[in-house]
Amino acid sequence: MLSGELYIADGPQQREANMRKRRLVQAISTSAYDAFEERDRLFHELFGSLGKGAFLEPPFNCDYGCNTYTGDNFYANMDCIFLDVAPITIGDRVFFGPRVGLYTPYHPIDAAVRASGPEGARPITIGSDVWFGGNVVVGPGVTIGNDVVIGAGSVVVKDIPSHSVAVGNPCHVIREITDADRDYWEGKAAEYRAWKDSLDG
Questions:
Q1: What are residue 60's DSSP bridge partners?
Q2: Residues 6+ apart with CB under 8 A from 181
Q3: Which tens digits make up the pLDDT trace of 125-151?
Q4: Cα–Cα distances in Å, from 95 out to 16, 82, 117?
Q5: What is the C-alpha separation between 45 and 73, in angstroms, rounded?
Q6: Alpha-carbon distance 136 to 141, whole Å?
Q7: Residues 26-84: pLDDT tens digits?
Q8: Where are the domains of the chain?
Q9: 72: nearest Cα among 48, 102, 90, 92
Q10: Can you tell me the distance from the alpha carbon of 7 to that of 123, in angstroms, rounded to the nearest whole number?
Q11: What is the pTM of this model?
Q12: Could you list the active site residues?
């Protein structure tokens, strides 16, 4: 399964891993609204690794959880779904809008083979300092670089290079992220901090 070759998902290891996931996801979904420490513990148990400061809003679902690895200060808004049949690796300071889907599985194009049960999966890799708008879907085998913005509703089926803004279905790069972008947004952030300081002072 993890090699990317075809397999049939009815073995005892898959069933055991999926039942483990179901138990943990149910506990996350039914936890009290303010049970932040409990959910943090449950997500640490669910994922292969969860970085420092990571936070996921429920509801959340996945295939196994144990094949998902996040960096530090990761944030996922509500209703995200990670089909982590193959590994999903997420860098530091990555922000997801609501209803982001990371889908590693693929199925044979031939109908007869598909109906007979075999399927496969390819890993998804996401760099650091990445922001996804809501309802972004990432398909199997995709790598997204560092410092990338993916527009809401995009369907990402090919790799996206670092330092770029990409949108659409299929998702494509529309421009690079430049020093001018950084200067503009640093200026806006400085304006906000000055305004906030004036209120506090």
A1: 80
A2: none
A3: 999 999 999 999 999 999 999 999 999
A4: 31, 14, 35
A5: 17
A6: 15
A7: 999 999 999 999 999 999 999 999 999 999 999 999 999 999 999 999 999 999 999 99
A8: 12-200
A9: 92
A10: 15
A11: 0.94
A12: 107
Tokens of 38: 């409990």
Written as one letter, the residue type at 148 is V
Residues in Cβ contact with 120 at an 8 Å cutoff, skipping those fewer than 6 apart: 4, 5, 6, 7, 105, 106, 107, 140
**Could you tell me where the DSSP H helices lie in 97-170?**
111-115
Q: Are 146 and 32 in contact (CB under 8 A)?
A: no
Query: What is the C-alpha to C-alpha distance for residues 160 and 151, in angstroms, rounded to an integer?
Result: 12
How many angstroms separate the Cα of 161 from the Cα of each of 84, 86, 144, 174, 183?
22, 21, 6, 11, 21
- Tokens of residue 36, six digits: 């932040």
67/193 Cα distance (integer angstroms): 40
18: its two tokens:
């999926």
CATH topology of domain 12-200: UDP N-Acetylglucosamine Acyltransferase; domain 1 (2.160.10)
Burial per residue of 171-194, b for 16 or more beta-carbon CB atoms within 10 angstroms, e otherwise:
beeeeeeeeeeeeeeeeeeeeeee
